[in-house]
Amino acid sequence: MNKHSKEQPAAENPEELLDLKLTKPEKWAAGIPAVSAAMVDILQEAGFVRGMEGLFKMNKKGGFDCSGCAWPDPDDDRSPIAEYCENGAKALAEEATTKKLTAEFFAQNSVEELAKLNDYEIGKKGRIAQPVYLPKGATHYQPISWDDAFKQIAAKLNSLASPNEAAFYTSGRTSNEASFTYQLFVREYGTNNMPDCSNMCHESTSVGLADAIGIGKGTVTLNDFYDTDVIIIMGQNPGTNHPRMLSALEKAKQNGSKIIAVNPLHEAGLMGFKNPQTVKGLLGISTHLADLYLQVKINGDMALLLAIEKLLYKAEMETPGKVFDHEFIKNNTEGYVAFLNHLNQFELEYLAAEAGIPVAQIQQAADMLKNTSRIIICWAMGVTQQKNGVATVKEIVNLSILKGAIGKPGAGLCPVRGHSNVQGNRTMMIWDKPKPKQLDKLKEVFGFEPPRDHGYDVVESIQAMHAGKLKVFFAMGGNFLSATPDTLYTADAMRKLEMAVHVSTKLNRSHLVHGDETLILPTLSRSDKDVVNGEAQFISCENSMGVVQMSKGILEPISKDLVNENQIVCRLAKATLGSRSVVDWDTYEKSYDAVRDVIAKAIPGFEDYNKKVRIPGGFYLPNAPREGKFESGQNDAKVHFTMSDLPKHDMAAGEYRMTTIRSHDQFNTTIYGLDDRYRGVHNERRVIFMNEQDMAEAGFKEGEQVDLYNNFGGRERVARLFVVVPYNIPQGNTATYYPEANVLIPIDSVAEKSNTPTSKLVFISIKRHVVKADK
Ligand SMILES: Nc1nc2c(c(=O)[nH]1)N[C@H]1C(S)=C(S)[C@@H](COP(=O)(O)OP(=O)(O)OC[C@H]3O[C@@H](n4cnc5c(=O)[nH]c(N)nc54)[C@H](O)[C@@H]3O)O[C@H]1N2
Ligand SMILES: Nc1nc2c(c(=O)[nH]1)N[C@H]1C(S)=C(S)[C@@H](COP(=O)(O)OP(=O)(O)OC[C@H]3O[C@@H](n4cnc5c(=O)[nH]c(N)nc54)[C@H](O)[C@@H]3O)O[C@H]1N2
Ligand code: SF4
Ligand SMILES: [Mo]
């Protein structure tokens, strides 16, 4: 176990260095460099005409939805020129590329050779242009017809002892329509083994919020940002991962709002913004963003929230009725007194020390919140990918309900989602733990009995593969090997598969670390024109604020062999289920309108779907807490205060906390480029950001080559050959890039209740690099 396979040495994680250059980290985001970086990518990949055609239609009403992140478009006015950011343009460049991978490419390049490339090089090869098949024992992918591909997969699925020996993964770009038919097929086939990227992402949010406020989604709309007094941004790096959020923050500031950033790193996009769409921004004048920057220790957020609540309680005692919203608390909550008693147990100084922030700064935060309830709290992976992620989300709810900052204009909870349709996937029942009510509805609409047992999530899927219990893995997008934790363990698991099938736009590492048989089924991307039976189709997506909107691709697909994801599902369903099926797959294969009509029957909030989706700008899904109505896990129409303990961090001597982050030049495992401009890192990704004091104590210099070790559960994990970069980060804390450091994240280090890998905190030791004996 945990050794490189003989046939594929180091395929999971090439350990090689490039040529690191460092510059000073930036103090603001975007501006002219963002515009030029985006243009370079577009021109290199798609060319001028195709690139401009794509950019012009991106995020416009009647155009296509950016496939990047889930940040919403403005409800009303959209920019006549550009409704996208640098990273949206890079996402487009990545899929609009004219480079393509045909049978000749795969004949010339063996799987073993391809696996030696780094992720950047693999991604830059181009779009997959035809279905390919890697038979058992073969060294090269070979062409296969669509019909034969479906026959092979169907035969395998039908040969399994139980449908639960197969798992069906989803990454967050799949449309509502394809997600719905996909889960329908999987459930009619007979399993709830539907792991998805959410399991590694905002699952702690979904679990925490569903329990606390009755819906696993945020409660704000974009317009709330323009009508608020304080925005807290916790564990999120919007300048890179949700760049158009900076325009919303700029407008919020113009309207008088204050911003509090909570982050172990000083991120450029939280400090300042030069809006490339304004004269001011183009002249290089930046808007100052964070008014207060709380440089918390990794996973010190819970301690910080408790400390803020404590100081607010103190202020409330001094001026009774002025700080907490007693009417809200009385009408809508349960457990207030018990919560205050709980809060009283903690010493302020202890909380401040655990958070790593001086009491005086926490007091500043409390003062900013004291006299207003118009507060929006935003969060992302810094909060969710933690052992206590669910508890921290619930602590965010505690703070919000003390202030009555939910269900009113300018206030609310704002988890900022990842992929462009990850929220829609879950609404469409891509879920390993579907609710009985949802399954009853499927049964009522379609007439088959869906499986009731919960399926495997991501971590459980990997463990089941490893144990030989999962034999077939089907992925609707994504890059399972690189996105998941414990890379070598997961690679071992994937090598045990009898069959893997990847529906994909681009080649990635998951296609190259394989078991017996593997198929890659190429598909259309968001910007591609989608013509079925001579008719141009459109799909729809749900953004981070619950708006469902149409998206119509316009670019000529690079190959006639590409089909859309819904067609793949319907054809696979026919091949696998044949006359066993009670679903009219032929009709759904031909028309998204037909799929939407049945979604309207099966999923609440989608009544009149075909009509509403055609309204320019789309429609909002129902959201009771946004209207001030609550139905918590306890079913008593109240929000319950949650009492959580502080996380314990048992560290051995010489260990550091390590968080994993995204560079400015990547979308998850897709590496757009090798620079992280805002953090001043160029031409290298195998870096470890360290505090200078820590470096001095350990005797490391800038550029020192080191190996990183994790020993969770008594098993040694090693990430070799990283370069030390001095950085403004709290002592004892370090950061590395995902996915290179995923080797170090233990498969069984997961968040309580959500089972999300703890990608934002593992404990490591750092040693000078040693050259391996076998090299
Ligand atoms: N361009 C681009 N856009 C993306 C993505 C991408 O890869 N590239 N990915 C998409 C996806 S799927 C997602 S989920 C989102 C992710 O969006 P983010 O959550 O913003 O992404 P990360 O880089 O993982 O980390 C977020 C921030 O958390 C901070 N952090 C780390 N540990 C802690 C902690 O313990 N406490 C606090 N308070 N902060 C901490 C890091 O310093 C970093 O600034 O972005 C989406 N958008
Ligand atoms: N250490 C660490 N690990 C993490 C994280 C972290 O912060 N730290 N973040 C986690 C998070 S938040 C997430 S969401 C996951 C992401 O996990 P995934 O969703 O599995 O990964 P992505 O990199 O987004 O997937 C990219 C691949 O999707 C395919 N693709 C792109 N567009 C399409 C499309 O339109 N259709 C189809 N069929 N395929 C397409 C391409 O082949 C591309 O290579 O990773 C998680 N892993
Ligand atoms: S903010 Fe997100 S959705 Fe909007 S253009 Fe940028 S990457 Fe695309
Ligand atoms: Mo994500």
UniProtKB/TrEMBL annotation:
GO cellular component terms, semicolon-separated: membrane
Family matches, as SUPFAM superfamilies: ADC-like (SSF50692), Formate dehydrogenase/DMSO reductase, domains 1-3 (SSF53706)
MF GO annotations: 4 iron, 4 sulfur cluster binding; formate dehydrogenase (NAD+) activity; molybdenum ion binding; molybdopterin cofactor binding
Domain Molybdopterin dinucleotide-binding positions: 657-761
Annotated keywords: 4Fe-4S, Iron, Iron-sulfur, Metal-binding, Molybdenum, Oxidoreductase
Any coiled-coil regions, as ranges: none
Keyword 4Fe-4S: yes
Residues annotated as domain Molybdopterin oxidoreductase: 136-503
Gene Ontology biological process: cellular respiration
Matching InterPro entries: Asp_de-COase-like_dom_sf (IPR009010), MopB_CT_YdeP (IPR037951), MoPterin_dinucl-bd_dom (IPR006657), Mopterin_OxRdtase (IPR006656), Mopterin_OxRdtse_a_bac (IPR010046), Prok_molybdopt-oxidoreductase (IPR050123), YdeP_MopB (IPR041953)
Family: Belongs to the prokaryotic molybdopterin-containing oxidoreductase family.
Protein's name according to its UniProt entry: Oxidoreductase alpha (Molybdopterin) subunit
Lineage: Bacteria, Pseudomonadati, Bacteroidota, Sphingobacteriia, Sphingobacteriales
